[in-house]
Specification:
This protein is of the alpha+beta class. The protein has helices spanning about 5-10, 15-25, 30-35, 40, 60, 70-75, 85-95, 105-115, 115-130, 140-150, 155-165, 165-170, 185-195, 230-235, 245-280, 280-285, 300-305, 310-315, 345-355, 365-375, 380-390, 395-415, and strands spanning about 45, 55, 210, 215-220, 225-230, 235-240, 320-325, 325-330. The strands form 3 sheets. It has a 4-stranded mixed beta sheet. The chain has a two-stranded antiparallel ribbon with strand order 1-6. Strand 4 (about 215-220) and strand 5 (about 225-230) form a beta hairpin. The relative contact order is 0.11.
């Protein structure tokens, strides 16, 4: 439902709350865009906010997000790469395009980095197996072929026929199969497998988008100050120079009052939600450290504020806030609870930190990790540690021991 449809809906009391919920789902940028065009459809309703300068470059937000390239580089530590190969892998990762591809001339690349083609292939295939999978593929064809191989669906002959006959396939012309001794149904079945694959490892916008935060927040160790960014509501007015008995004016007045009430209700609900989230995540936001975030789910917020969970979901799905000059997406401040006082996010960070500091000669087993976590007052089972370790893409202790052993051996040979 568009904002205009909300505005044109019959303003019955039974509809009021429904329309309020619909308004919550809109980003502030969409609302501002609608208000700027309001005068063309409702001539007596005016919106004058020419000094609106609260747009923030999306680039500011990107710097606070978990960077995909940083995550990929972090994962390299768990693989058998010497210093030289690690540097090459980092170079490739840092130069991925905004879809996760790395298109390069292999001959010149190998010469530039003083590595063999086989070494380059080994590094590239390793990066492709990191999370998100498929990064460092050359293009979509390379990425799709990688996915098919991972799923044991790879057929080089059929894939090459697909790649070489795209235009004919688009026109449902399969005559090229006649000379290949391939049954059309067999080929079409393989095409359906290809269509099921992703076409990019990830999508990262390279366009400088602008977003508008819903609130400006200042956090210190002593207090929290929240200023809702809702001045656009007061920028709405009715043309006072029109005869108020005018029937069209009355219709516009009803629309005006309804719209202003909806926007005010939206701001009021957002304030309650933002206030609770900020209060809960105070320590993590103060230090900009996600490991200090407290367990918090949308259902927990809904229960505390006596709102329906769908209301919370609508309100936070596209909402950004600015905290101490750093931009956050509100949904990123929700952390899955492990217990009343500990989040899964916190436990995973603790596991990762322990493994980073483990001795190469004796990597920590899952049982050892359980013991160390208990020293941090984290009560957890070995099975759950194994589950979180696997989610972090970290190999078990025996596999890590072998990696460390081979790495040490290579370093000695190099020395």
């Amino acid at each position: 439902m568009s904002i205009e449809q909300i505005l044109n809906n019959e303003m019955k009391l039974s509809n009021y709350q429904i329309q309020s919920l619909n308004m919550l789902a809109y980003r502030q940028e969409e609302i501002i865009r609608f208000l700027n065009e309001l005068g063309e459809k409702y001539p007596y309703i005016q919106y004058d906010y020419t000094n609106y300068d609260n747009n923030i470059s999306m680039d500011n937000f990107k710097s606070t997000e978990k960077n995909i390239r940083e995550s990929l580089i972090e994962q390299l530590i768990y693989y058998d790469l010497d210093d030289k190969d690690t540097q090459v892998a980092k170079f490739i990762i840092l130069n991925l395009d905004n879809k996760g591809f790395f298109d390069f001339d292999s001959t010149s690349f190998c010469k530039q980095h003083d590595i063999s083609y086989d070494e380059l292939q080994k590094i590239t295939k390793l990066i492709q197996k990191l999370t998100p999978m498929g990064c460092a593929s050359k293009d979509t064809f390379d990425f799709i072929s990688f996915q098919l191989q991972q799923k044991d669906l790879w057929d080089k002959r059929l894939f090459n026929l697909f790649k070489e006959n795209l235009e004919a396939i688009a026109h449902q012309d399969f005559s090229f199969l006649d000379s290949q001794n391939i049954i059309q149904d067999e080929f079409i079945k393989y095409l359906s497998c290809i269509k099921d694959q992703e076409i990019f490892p990830y999508i990262e916008s390279d366009v400088s988008l602008n977003i508008i935060p819903e609130a400006y927040i200042t956090i210190t160790s002593e207090e929290i100050k929240i200023k809702m960014n809702d001045n656009y509501i007061n920028a709405l007015s009715l043309d006072k120079n029109i005869e108020k008995q005018n029937e069209i004016y009355k219709q516009n007045e009803n629309k005006f009052n309804f719209l202003k009430n909806m926007l005010s209700k939206r701001s009021e609900t957002l304030f309650k939600i933002i206030h609770m989230i900020i209060t809960t995540q105070h320590n993590g936001l103060l230090t900009n450290d996600p490991r200090k975030y407290q367990p918090l789910s949308q259902n927990m917020v809904a229960e505390a504020l006596k709102l329906h969970p769908s209301t919370i979901s609508r309100a936070v799905q596209s909402c950004y806030i600015r905290v101490n000059d750093i931009l956050y997406k509100l949904t990123d401040l929700f952390v899955q609870p492990y217990s009343d006082s500990i989040s899964t996010h916190h436990i995973k960070h603790a596991i990762k930190d322990l493994i980073k500091s483990e001795p190469f000669s004796n990597p920590f087993s899952d049982e050892t990790l359980v013991a160390y976590l208990r020293e941090q007052e984290i009560s957890i089972s070995r099975r759950t540690v194994a589950k979180y370790r696997n989610e972090l893409k970290i190999k078990n202790c025996n596999a890590r021991r072998q990696i460390y052993k081979e790495r040490t051996s290579k370093n000695k040979e190099g020395g």
